[in-house]
Amino acid sequence: MIADPQWGLNEALGISNDGWIIGKGRYYPLGGGLSYDRLFLVNINQIPVSSVWLGVSGDSWTTPANWQGGVPNSTTAKANFLGQGTGTVTVDTVQIVNQVVFNAATPSYIVGGPGILNLAGTTPLLTNTTGSNTINASLNLGNGTAIQVDGGTLAISPATANTVGTGVTATIASGATLQLGGVGSSLSSAVSVTNNGTLAATAAGKVVGAITGSGSTTVTAAGATLTANHVRQGSLDIGAGNTVTVAPNGTDSGVSQVTNLSIDATGKLDLTNNDLIVENGNLATLTAQLASGLDINGSYGNGPGITSSAFANNVDFNTVLGIAANVELGYTSFSGQTVDANDVLIKYTYYGDADLNGLVDTATDFDLYITGLTSGGSLGGWLYGDFDYNGVVDSATDFDLYITGLTTQGGPLLTAGGGGSSITAVPEPGSLALLAVGVCGTSVLLRRRRQPSNSKCSNR
Length: 460
What we know:
The protein is mostly beta strands. The protein is 11% helix and 34% strand.
């Protein structure tokens, strides 16, 4: 057995019959840094058997001559790729390892082949410290596997879908990149990603769990799509023809928050039934992306931009995505996330919920609508009653949508949170009665939309 290169054993103080050692040793941090002495208690049956790829006899994983320390194939085996040999490694049969470590600027390793690489044992680890390396072989990521991209680029691009256990995590350091490509799922919705570098989906059907951190999530490669439980990132970049979907949730844990949002003219962000916070967002740009994506008077949810498949598929036709600048709303928290005056808030809610608090009322929401209607065009947008995003607040469609939301809403849709709206709207006296008379003679021109059975207008 070759000792783990991170450890140097100075003195064994004692050993038990079942393999437990207490001793003194020097620890050498992976990737460099100061070493130091420490006491340790370890079972020799759990120490990773460390092997280093040499690649001197072809590219087969199972060829003994290709490894210093023997072929790694056990739940305590550690496969190190440290710059020796060829960059092509073929996993020709099913192999089991506890750790896979890439730590070399060159060559760029490509680990492929027909076999399956199983990460198993105690705290399985897949790490990329430096260099650009790819795993094309199918992976079986055992329970608790940690994927660590501390530097360089690691691409996980399986030929067939990977198998992912419970408690698997991925961590991407600043300046590092994790690429998810290949056929089928690279990871799964149970894999939480802490991304302070770059997470890139490079093929269709990529799925992860929650994405957090200060880094960038990019979906710009041809045909690439990504589904995540939420995206809370420094930036989200969606390219031409690409789609990012936030998995259906509807609670605080489904809320996304980004500092920078970039969507190509033909890209799509599908929030399903979740909310979005764009820090320092441009209200006009985001409203235009909503108008395009929702396409309320056209494809009803199938346009490019920001949309909601939950809105498009709602048979009650009473929910949609609303938007407002928080400088006007004055919330201090929104759907469980801290917000400030510079943020733009997007909420999956009922038609007519002007102040984005998750409910439609006959006080604030109606007052905001009337304020917009009677402003002579100086006030508009969702906040002031343009509920179909056509750029005009009117007494026909917009009011009908308000009534639809008011009379068909269920419970509150993820209430806004702390701070409360600071809006004060002043409607014209008697406007509710006047509009109630006026709108009952109108019809709503929305494709796929059906009038709710409890409409207040008897001639519809």
